[in-house]
Fold:
Amino acid sequence: MESTSIRLGKIAGIPVGISWSLLVIAALFSFGLAEGRFPGSDPGYASGTYWLAATVTVVAFFASILAHELAHAVVARRHGLPVEGITLWLLGGIARMGAEPATPGAELRIAGVGPLSSAVVGVGFAGLAWTSDQLGIEPIVGSVFGWLALINLALAVFNAVPASPLDGGRVLAAVVWWRTGDRTRGNVGAAHAGRILGGVLVAYGLWELIGQDSDLGIWTMLVGWYIWQSAGADGRSAQARGALAGIPAVEAVRPDPPIVDESVTVDGLVAMLGHDGHHTAFVVREHDGVLRSVVTLDDIRRVPPGRRGELTLHDIAVPISQLTTAWATEPLLRVIERIPAEGRPEIVVYDDRMCLVGVVSRSDLARLAAARQVPSSPRRPARRSGSAAS
Ligand SMILES: [Zn+2]
Structure:
C-alpha cells in the first residue's frame, strides 16, 4: 500500500498521501451519486450539474476522512508520539505513528478523537443542510450537505464499534488496560472482538450478495475481510509484545556471538555453521581488528549459491551504524519501537562499558516471544488456530 501511494504534501508538518485504490472508490462514489442518488432526490437538473455536485461531494468526503486522521495525528503528537504520515486508501485512512502511547489515557484520547471528529463534521454538515434549506438555496446543495452529514455520522458510529482495528477497539483496549493494568489483555480482547466483527460482516455481506442480490455485499465482505485480517495481526503482535514486556534487551541476546574475519568467504562461514547451528547473526572483524559490521543468516541466504565461493563477508556485511543499537539493560519493547519500519530488523546490544554483547535478529525475537508465551497462556495458540480454520 505504501509503495503505491501518491504524496499530496504536508499538513501541519504531517506528510499526507493517497493510495491509488482510493481513486477507484472515488470514481465509484461519483458515479453512484451523479447517476443514481442526486437525480433521484432532486430531479430536473442537467447531467453536468449532477456530476459537478458528485465531484464536490466526493472531494469533501475525502477531506472529512483526512480531518478524522489529522485529529488522531495531532493528538498523538501532543502526547509526544512521532507521526510518520497519513495515507488515505480504499477503506478510509491510516495515521502511522512511530511509537505506542505510553498510558491508557493517551491511547484513549488518540483513538477516541477520531470518531468524535467525524461526529462533529457530520453535525456541521447537517447544520449546513438545514441552513441551505431554510434559505431556499438550490435543493441539490442541501442534498450534497445531507449526504456528507449522513456519511460522516455513519463513519463516527462504525469507527466507534469496540473491535480492533477500529478506533473503538483502541478505546476498548485502553479501558481494559486502565481497569486491569494489563495492556496485553486489552489489546488481545480488542483483537478477539475484531475477529468476531470481521466474521459477522463477511457473513452479512454474503447474505446481501446472495440472499438479497445486492452488489453492496461485495463491499461489506471486503470490509469484513480487512477487519478480520487486521484484527488477527493485531492480536498476534499484542501477544508477542506482551510476552516481551518487562525484559531487558540483553535477554534476547544469544551470548558469545561468533566473531568472523571479513576475509572469510560465504562458503567458509556456511561450513562453520555446520558446527554452530545456534547463532543467527555473526559479528564481522575488519582488517584493522575493529568490529564494525554484522552478517545474519538472512544475508547469507540471499547470496546465490554459485557466488558463495567468491564473495567474502566484507562484501555482504552490514555496517552496525545501519542497525538499531541498544543498551543491555534497556527495556526490549522500547528498543523494538525504535526499529525503523523500512530498515533492518537487527538490534546490536552493548553493555555499559560500550562492549558489544551480541546481535538480536528478527528470528531471535520471534523465538523468544514464542518461548515466553507458552507457559503463561497455554490455551491461546489452540484458540487462535481454531478461529483461523473457520
Ligand atoms: Zn480513526
In short: The first helix runs from residue 20 to 41. Residues 68, 72, 114, 159, 167 surround zinc ion (CB under 6 Å). Residues 249-374 form a domain with the CBS-domain fold (CATH 3.10.580.10). The chain has two domains: 2-244, 249-374.
